[in-house]
Amino acid sequence: MAHKTFISYKYSEAQKLRDSIINALGDDATYYKGETSDSPDLTDTTTDNIKRHLTDMMYDTSVTIVIISPNMKQSKWIDWEIEYSLKSITRNDRTSHPNGIVGVIMKYNGGYDWFKYSVINDDGCRAISYKTNLTYNIINKNRFNQNPMKYSCNACKTVNSLTGSYIAFVEQDDFLSNPDKYIENAFDKSENDAAGYNLVKTR
User: Fold this and answer.
1) Domain membership flag for residue 132
2) What are the tens digits of pLDDT across the range 126-163?
3) Global pTM?
4) Angle between helix 78-86 and 47-58 (nearest 10)
5) Domain that holds residue 85
6) Are residues 27 and 180 in contact, defined by beta-carbon separation less than 8 angstroms?
7) Is-contact 15 23, C-beta < 8 A?
8) Does 174 fall in a domain?
9) Domain assignment of residue 153, yes or no
10) Residue 203 covered by a domain
11) How far is it, in rounded angstroms, from Cα 9 to Cα 26?
12) How many distinct structural domains can be found in the chain?
């Protein structure tokens, strides 16, 4: 089932990946509500005008795709867009529900080592970790927040990469090969106001 989506990204380094995501959506790209190469340039407009433009695009969406890129924290808008996506907003007597959110890790210098790495736990299990200093607190606080937590391995307390966190991380190649899978996963977690997760909705 197609869902209305919005892509949050740092324009100067992730525009190409944004376009690749829209292309990968195929026919479902008609449900994409964010910026495109044809969108008006708002660089020199006021902050309030930019926010108004963004909220008009985001309000009716149900899934937000956040591109995790090396310098994303230099963006003035990504964390604000995530915060807006997680809130229940009332407009014209209609209240929106929190969006499902998926983080797509951008391939950089041919791989993902700039952001992810593997560790060996004390019990010998291998797990994937991420350089959380490169992402916003509102993302990090919505990781590993499933309630109740369901462990994939009780010994080392690892969780399922897609369901253990409200904001799952997915590599660019995996996402582009099957965007419906990850969009649907994000949407499913948002159902019933994300009742299965301890959401942090503020930056």
Assistant:
1) yes
2) 888 999 999 999 999 999 999 999 988 777 778 899 99
3) 0.90
4) 40
5) 5-194
6) no
7) no
8) yes
9) yes
10) no
11) 20
12) 1
